[in-house]
Hints:
about 270 residues, Alpha-Beta Plaits, elongated
Amino acid sequence: MSTARTPIAKSAEKRPPTRAAARGKIYLYAIIAGGEDRAYEEAGIDQSNLYSISMGQIAAVVSDVVNENVRPERARLAAHHQVLKKLMAESTPLPMSFGIVADSPAAVRRMLERNQDVLLDQLQHVAGTVEMGLRITWDVENIFEYFVTTHPELRLARDRLLGSNCQPTQEQKIEVGRMFDRLLTDDREAHSDLAMGIFASHKCEIKQLKCRNEREVMNLACLVKREAVPLFEAAVFEIAKQFDNNFALDYNGPWAPHNFVNVDLEL
C-alpha cells in the first residue's frame, strides 16, 4: 500500500494556461507546507494546469476554473482525488472537499495569510501520516431476521407481539422495533469496543464515523504513521478473525486525512 516518493513539481514559469479561466476563479485541492509558488506536471479538473499559490510557510494547490459551474461529475471527482494522491506521494496535505472555489488568486493568498497559524498546526498534526479506513457490515440477507435468530429476547417479543395468531397494534410493532434498534446499538458498541481494544496498542488516532445504514456495524477512520501501516494492517487482520461469515470487512487506504482536518476557511 506504500507509494514511492516522486518529484511532481517544476518551475512555475514553464507551463502556459491550457484555456481561458472562468473570470479568474481558482479551484482548491489542498493546503501544503512550503513557501514557494510551483507548477505541477499533472493536470487538475477539466485538464487545467495545476500549480500552487503560496503565502508565508504554506501554499494552496490549485487550478484555474475553466467552467463557471464545477459540478461533481465522475471525471472531475476522479481528477480531484488523483491530485490528492499525487500530493500524498510527497507529503501529507490538508485535503479540501470537492467543489471549493475562490474568487481570485488574491483571495487565496488572503485566506492563507488569515489562517496561517491554524493551518500550520493542522499540517504538523498530520505530518508523516495517512488515513486508513475500516468498515464492517452485517453481510446477511435480512438484518431483522438475523437478529431474531441471534437474540432470543427479540425472537420471544416478535412471536408474542407479532405472531400469526394475533393482529398486532401499531404500539406493539413500535415496541418490537425499539427492541431491535436497542440490540442493534448494543451490538455495534460491543463490536466497536473489540476493534478499538485491538487498535489500542498501535498509537493511532481513530474516529468512529456515523453508520450510514442499518447494516453497518462500524465505520472507522484511522490516522496512521506511514511507517506503522504494516503493523496497523496486522491489527486489522486480527480484528477480522473475531468476525464470522455473517460480516463483511472493507479495509481501504491510504488516503489523504480528510477526517482529521478541522479548519473552517472563509474564501
